[in-house]
Amino acid sequence: MFDMMGMMNKVKEAQAKMKEVQDNLVHVQAEGEAGAGMVRAVVNGKRQVLRLEVDESLLNPADREMLQDLSVAAVNHALAAVEVKIKEEMKQATQGMLPNIPGMNFSDMFG
What we know:
Protein name: Nucleoid-associated protein A3SI_02748
Shape: rod-shaped
Function: Binds to DNA and alters its conformation. May be involved in regulation of gene expression, nucleoid organization and DNA protection.
CATH architecture of the domain at 26-98: 2-Layer Sandwich
Distance between the termini: 31 Å
Strand content: 15-25%
Helix content: 40-55%
Radius of gyration: 20 Å
Family: Belongs to the YbaB/EbfC family.
Subunit structure: Homodimer.
GO molecular function, one term: DNA binding
Largest sheet: 3 strands, antiparallel
CATH class of the domain at 26-98: Alpha Beta
């Protein structure tokens, strides 16, 4: 027989754990770079840009458009890298907490 109360308790437990993980995402960081490292961006798990480092050689007004493009690329690389870290944190937080139902990915429900 299916234990509905047990399942509801597991869901509540998973939700509490996910909230804790989400609150701690501010401490998860990832870096992205572009232009062979000439522009580097650091973001956190809350998808906030923490730092943008630019090589001095790009601070020429003639390179303005290239600097803009490299900055966007570096930030996008960092955001993609932090997404991987966020999914791993969420997966670890819910591992073994919820039943394995084919076709249902509970870790994506909370993130």
